[in-house]
C-alpha cells in the first residue's frame, strides 16, 4: 500500500514541504478522545483502544501532532522522524 498523508499544519514536527505528513504512523481519533488523553497516547498504542464514532469530520483530530522543535519528539517512546 502506498499512502500519501497530506497535512497543512506547518508547525508540526512531521510537516514536510508540499503539505505532506512524514510520520511513519498516525493516530486519528475523536476530539473527545484526544482531549482526554495525554500527549504520549499515539499511533503505537492504537491497538489497545476501542474504535469510536465521530459523527462527522469536524469531531476528529490527529493525535500524532508534535510541535516543531519540541523536546517531546519522543513523547510516545518512539523517536520521531526528522
Description:
The protein has 82 residues and is mainly beta. The protein has a domain at 25-62. Helices cover 7% and strands 12% of the residues. The chain has one helix spanning 31-36; strands at residues 15-16, 20-21, 28-30, 60-62. The strands form two sheets. A two-stranded antiparallel sheet has the order 1-2. A two-stranded antiparallel ribbon has the order 3-4. The longest helix has 6 residues, at 31-36. It is globular, with a radius of gyration of 13 Å. The mean pLDDT is 85. Residues 5-65 form the DUF1540 domain. This is DUF1540 domain-containing protein. It comes from Desulforamulus profundi.
The neighbouring-strand order within the major sheet is 1-2
Task: Compute the CA-based radius of gyration.
Answer: 13 Å
User: Structural class of the helix and strand makeup?
Assistant: mainly beta
Q: Can you tell me the residue ranges where pLDDT is under 50 for at least 5 consecutive residues?
A: none
Helix content: under 10%
Number of strands: 4
Distance between the termini: 23 Å
Shape by Cα distribution = globular
Strand/helix succession = EEEHE
**Biggest sheet, in brief?**
2 strands, antiparallel
Give the averaged pLDDT, no decimals.
85
Continuous helix count: 1
Strand content: 5-15%
Amino acid at each position: 500500500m502506498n499512502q500519501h498523508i497530506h497535512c497543512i499544519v506547518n508547525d508540526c514536527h512531521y510537516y514536510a514541504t508540499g503539505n505532506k505528513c512524514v510520520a511513519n504512523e498516525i493516530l486519528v481519533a475523536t476530539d473527545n478522545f484526544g482531549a482526554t488523553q495525554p500527549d504520549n497516547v499515539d499511533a503505537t498504542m492504537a491497538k489497545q483502544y476501542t474504535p469510536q464514532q465521530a459523527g462527522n469530520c469536524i469531531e476528529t483530530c490527529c493525535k500524532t501532532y508534535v510541535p516543531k522543535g519540541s523536546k517531546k519528539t519522543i513523547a510516545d517512546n518512539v523517536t520521531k522522524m526528522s
